[in-house]
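Next comes the chain:
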Amino acid sequence: MNSWGKKYRILFCITGGIAAYKMPEVVHTLVKEGHSVRVLLTKASEKFVTPFLFATLTGEQVYREEDFLDDTTGPTIPHICLAAWADLLVVAPCTANSLKIIARGESHVLLGALFLASPKRGLLFPSMNTHMWEHPKTAFHVKGCLELGHRVVEPAEGRLACGTSGKGKMQDNANILEEIRRFLLPVKDFAGKKVLVTAGPTWEYLDPVRFLSNPSSGKMGYALAREAWYRGAEVTLLSGPVCHGNFYGFRHISVTSAEEMGEQLHSLHEEYDFLLMAAAVGDYRFPTRVPQKIKRGNREFLELSLVRNPDLLVEAGKKKKPQQILVGFAAETENLLENAQDKLARKNVDYIVANFVGGEKSAFGSSDNAVTIIDKKGQKCSSSGTKAHVASDILDLLASLFSGKE
C-alpha cells in the first residue's frame, strides 16, 4: 500500500477567480515532488495569470480555450487527449460558473468537455463571494458535482477579494496540496477507523521561564497522523509543544505537561481503534512550579528534586479494550532490541517501534528515521527513510490486521 515515491500525472485547471494568482506555487510544488503537471487555463483565468508562467514552471504545453476552438491544431483533440493522459483533474480556483459547467456536463468550453471525456473523479476547490457560495443554485451544482463522484473541498472563511469577510475563500495552498496528496492515495484502508496519535515532547515547568524537556520534534507522530488521514481515518493528534503549523484535516489537541497529556488520554482513549503513542513523555517533573522566576543571585549551585510522572503507555495498556491496537515507541541509546522487547512485555502493547537516539536517523529532531517494529510474538520488521515513509510502513502493518493480509 505504500505510495511514497509514486509519481502521478496531474491536470491542473485554473479558472477565472482572483485566487488564480496563488496557483503557481502549488503547481511548482507538485513539479518539485516529481509529478508530471499540465495546466489548463480558461479564458477568464488569463486575466490573472499567463500561459508562459505555467509553461516555464511545468516544462509542458499549457492548454487554452483557443486550443479547443482552433480547427487548425492538427489531429490531436485537446479534451480527449488530456482526459486520457491525466491521473487526476484538479480545478483551483473553481468558480461558481465552473461548478455549473461540470455539474451540468456543458461541453461548449474546454473545461466542460474535458470533464465529460474523463472517467476520473475531479478535485474541486471553490472560490467565490459568500453570497454566491450560499446561493441555492451553487448548492445545487455542488450536489451535482458530488453525485458525479467529484470531491468538492469547501472554501474557508476569511477576508475576500470583494472586501467583505465570510465563507468563500479558497483553501490555503498548503491545504490544497494536502488534499491532492490524500486524493492520490489509491486505497483508503483506514476508512471508518479512528486513530489517536501522541507526539512531541512534554515540558515540565520549574518556574515561568525554565522547564525540563527533551529534543523531540514531534515529526514522527505528525507523520503518522497525516498518513492515517491520507488513508481515510478519523484522526486526533495529541501533541506536546511542537512547531508544525498545518494540522489541516484532523483534530489537534495541544498540551504542555505529561499530566495534561494523561488527562486527555484518559478522556479520549475509549473512542479510538488505534492508539499510536509516539510522544516523548517526560519521566519526571518538579514537585511544584515556582510562581516567580528563580533568581541566580550569588548561588554556585541550585539543588532540585524530581518526582515521577505517570507512565502513560502503561496506563493505556491497562485500559486497552480487546479490539484496540496499542502501539508504543522506544527511543534508546543502547541495547535497542532488548530494551524494546522488555518494554513491550511490561506495558501490554501490541507493537513496539524501536529506534536509536543519535545519528543521522535519530529518533529526535531528524526528518529521517530507522526503526524496528516488534510484535507480541517477537516477530520483527524494519523500516527506514523519511519519517513519512516510515509512518506509511507502520500503517501498512496495522492495516494487515483487518485486511486479512497479515
In short: The chain has a mean pLDDT of 92.
